Amino acid sequence: MSKIRDYVPIVGESTIEELFLLAERLKGKIIQNINSTAVGGGVAEILIRMLPLLQDLGVNASWGVIKGDEKFFHITKKMHNALHGVDASIGRDELDYFIDVNRQNTQEIMADADILFIHDPQPIALVEQKDTLGRKWIWRCHIDFTNPKKDVWDFLKNYIERFDCAVFSAPAFSRPLAIRQVLISPSIDPLSEKNRELSDDLVNGICERFNIDRGRPVITQISRFDYLKDPVGVIRAYKMVKKHLDCQLVLAGGGATDDPEGMKVLEEVHREAENDPDIFVLFLPPGSDIEINALQRASDIVLQKSLREGFGLTVAEGLWKGKPVIASAVGGIPLQIAHKYSGILTHSIEGTAYWIKQLLNEPEYAAKLGVNGREHIKYNYLITRHIRDYLLLFLSLYEQKDIVSL
Ligand code: UDP
Asked: Could you tell which of 313, 321, 382 is best to mutate to test the pocket of ligand 1, judged by most ligand atoms within 8 Å of the CB?
């Protein structure tokens, strides 16, 4: 596991010193994170990396996980979809069951925790305990809800407004609420397997394993096989480019085996790829972090042609590796890319094809976008910034008066 001082060569001594100063002011406070899964998913991924760093800073931070059965997670999955604007009917009995499971989990709340940091909707009803227990309560929402279904939103809002504040990942996701809202974007960890530096030998070895030719341009999109990531649109853009320029396309991701829709998308992708030997559809097992890292590093261009997106961590990952990234202007992506400065924002298959050709024809301009993109990620979307925002947020709970924004 990384130590906080390992980040000094990347973000500088003063950034780390500031974290120690902020952490010092939290002495004596116990912060407990609570979510609904210890492994898998972005929330767990961030907590796994962040908890040891907080502890290394001297912050007394811990992490509890609520327990639920299949029925509970089936209900929360429907809630999740409804928050993304998908039709999903959730009955009153299901909502009651959701509340019951939350009540059964009240023992997860540590007796001496000062700040309860509740992640996402699954454990949200724990806040019922606030009236009896007191303490400071934060609700951290990792979901994109620009367009949530009203009935589910109304149900959750009733709980959200009992917290001291709510944290969202991008401005577009905030909603009218009677409590304070804070914007804190997610982050990537430059020292994780997914993002750390790799030797050329390792990158070459992984490309060889997949039969990717490093002598010709490589364009890559890393994503779960999901309609909203538009892999078919990516292939169509590649085909338009391929009429004019030689290149290879890598579509790599996993998450389809237990998801019937994912398998359907994968089939469509194969159909659209028409056995083109220069299209590499790679189905990656979970934990393929080094492979993803190597594929991103081996790319001339990284794509993220999503139709809808939360924050879009793959964009940050590509930019951090100094790659020119062409991505759709949706969700949190415009926070990461200033068009024609730190990457390219597009709105269509044609636009994506146009910019792939431009960047392949102008490698110096493409390289400049990559350099600017890496700088932008370095200052805004690394885990050290994320920790700083959280520490400031925790402190602000005790000094509500003059807080404007973090
Ligand atoms: N990812 C992965 N394996 C895959 C596909 C994606 O580890 O097969 C990673 C990817 O590198 C990124 C995260 O999962 O870190 C996806 O986050 P993002 O915000 O881009 O999209 P989401 O999947 O959350 O919609």
From this structure: 313
Residue entry with tokens 């909203």: 228
Under a CB-based contact definition with an 8 Å cutoff, are residues 86 and 80 in contact? no
For residue 46, give the nearest of 397, 385, 324 by alpha carbon.
Answer: 385
Amino acid at 332: G
SS3 track for 147-197 = CCCHHHHHHHHHHHCCCCEEEECCHHHCCCCCCEEEECCCCECCCCCCCCC
Name, in order, each residue with C-beta under 8 angstroms of 237's C-beta and a sequence gap of 6 or more: 303, 305, 349, 350, 352, 353, 356
Q: Quick check: CB of 331 below 6 Å from ligand 1? A: no
pLDDT digits (tens, 9 = 90+) for 67-85: 999 999 999 989 988 988 8
Q: What tokens does 345 get?
A: 């924002």
> Collapsing DSSP states into helix, strand and coil, what is residue 400?
coil
pLDDT band at 406; cut points 50, 70, 90: very low
Give the bridge partners for 220, in sequence order: 250, 302
Per residue in 358-399, pLDDT (tens digit) is: 999 999 999 999 999 999 999 999 999 999 999 999 999 998
Say if ligand 1 is within 6 A of residue 254 CB.
yes
Q: What's the rounded Cα separation, in Å, for the pair 40 and 34? A: 15
Which of 80, 223, 228 for a ligand 1 pocket mutation test, highest count of atoms within 8 Å of Cβ? 223
Domains, in order of start, for the chain: 4-187+382-396 (3.40.50.2000), 200-380 (3.40.50.2000)
* DSSP letter assigned to residue 229: G
Could you tell me which residues are beta bridge partners of residue 62? 32
User: Does residue 280 line the site of ligand 1, with CB under 6 A?
Assistant: no
